[in-house]
Amino acid sequence: MSTLTTSDSFSTLLATAPTSFAPLRQLAKESFLAQGLPSLKAEEYKFTPIAKKLESTLTNFTPAQPFALSAEQVGGAIIEGFEGLLLVFANGYFQPQLSTSLEGISITRLSDQPETQLGSIAKVEKDPFTALNQATFFEGIHLSLPKKTQLDQPILLLQFHQANVGQVISPRIWIEAGDFSSATFIDHSVSLGEQPYFVNKVVEIKGGINTHLTYLRLQHEGNRVIEVSNLETDLQKDGQFTSVNISLSGDLVRNNLTLNLLGSNTVGNMFGVYLLNGKTHVDNHTNVDHTFPHTESHELYKGIVADQSRGVFNGKIFVRQAAQKTNAFQQNNNILLSDDAIVNTKPQLEIWADDVKCSHGCTVGQLDEDALFYLQARGIDKINAKGLLLHAFAGEVLDKIECDSFRNHVVAQIQERLGSKI
């Protein structure tokens, strides 16, 4: 455990929490204080020194407040070619005056939804950062899709972050999709300024029967930002959920992703790319829990790690005794572009059923020098040849992005990072 929980560092943050959801907040506060922040001795955080990073970078944590955004700022941050519903946030606070509305879709502040099932999916005892968010978040949204809602266009969650040293941004989102509904969400964060701050996000998604949901995420925070993201989803019979997470920057980033497959014929897809340079540290922890028979999960994460950056992957697949006829696949592949880059990878399977098809694996290597020479020999300069190979490596994940505007935006960001015209 970390000394942070018994020091004065979090006392202001906890003391200034709103009074709404009092029982839930008290439970979360007690859970956070009992767990403490994880040290390197904690198995789930053994490669990610987040308590040390928080203690050395930020002190006397206080909640970040909303700030004024202009229509020009919002317009300049919208993904080129995007067409759909726009929801704008400033430090986690919903900005309805800058957002668009769609008939039939309910978007309300959590404070106006006292009967919400907040915390029923992302349970506070599982992770101290989930507990900290539930104890201290100031405002969140409840987004509800009625039964049989079929959205042809995506919903863009455009989240602007601007905070001072030591401030904490605590976005909280509850999404509920009625039976036979389908939607795509794009979660895009925009950092304003260069100050070090802490983003502690929790997103809960409750999918009904035969829902088809996609959650696309682009992490492109400032290079001094520490971020923890918890995305947890319950999926019912015949449902499908797809997550694609792209991580490009930040100081230290931890992504926790959990899929609970709670009915037969459910399908969970978990894809990700992390393209790291400098001293960026990104840790992806995933869990998929097969609890019913005839369920599937497909997971593929790819990392390109350069300079002194570090990538961590820990994927867990649980197959319960009742989950016969499960089909689960998990793979993590990495390319190191420097001698100082580090990757720690640990795919895991825990199986209690005996009639299943499950596989997992990981690789860590370098660029194929023969392939690089082959391209250069045909007139492609080294930078673009390297970029072409790296793009091909990541392309298997990028091809999973069905939203054209988001995929094009991500490819452009990767091109810029690689310095190549791929």
Give a verbal description of the structure.
This protein is of the alpha/beta class and 422 residues long. The chain has one domain. Helix content is 20%, strand content 39%. The chain has eight helices and 21 strands. Strand 2 and strand 3 form a beta hairpin. Helix 2 runs antiparallel to helix 5, helix 6 crosses helix 7 and helix 7 runs antiparallel to helix 8. The longest helix is centred in the C-terminal third of the chain and has 17 residues. It is globular. It starts with 10 loop residues before the first helix and ends with a helix.
Uncertain runs: 1-7
Q: What proportion of the residues is helical, as a percent range?
A: 10-25%
Q: Radius of gyration, rounded?
A: 21 Å
Helix-strand makeup class: alpha/beta
Outline: globular
Oligomerization: single chain
Mean pLDDT across all residues, rounded? 93
Domain tally: 1
Compute the number of strand runs. Answer: 21
Question: Can you tag this structure with a few keywords?
Answer:
eleven-stranded mixed sheet; globular; alpha/beta; 39% strand; 21 strands; 422 residues; single chain; ten-stranded mixed sheet
Please give the structural blueprint.
Blueprint: H1 11-15, H2 22-35, H3 50-57, E1 62-63, H4 71-77, E2 85-90, E3 93-94, E4 106-109, H5 128-136, E5 141-145, E6 155-161, E7 167-169, E8 172-177, E9 182-191, E10 198-207, E11 212-220, E12 226-235, E13 240-249, E14 252-261, E15 267-276, E16 281-290, E17 296-305, E18 310-319, E19 327-336, E20 342-351, E21 357-365, H6 369-377, H7 382-398, H8 404-418
Parallel strand pairs: 1-7, 2-6, 5-8, 6-9, 7-10, 8-10, 9-11, 10-12, 11-13, 12-14, 13-15, 14-16, 15-17, 16-18, 17-19, 18-20, 19-21
Antiparallel strand pairs: 2-3, 4-5
Helix pairs in contact: 2-5, 6-7, 7-8
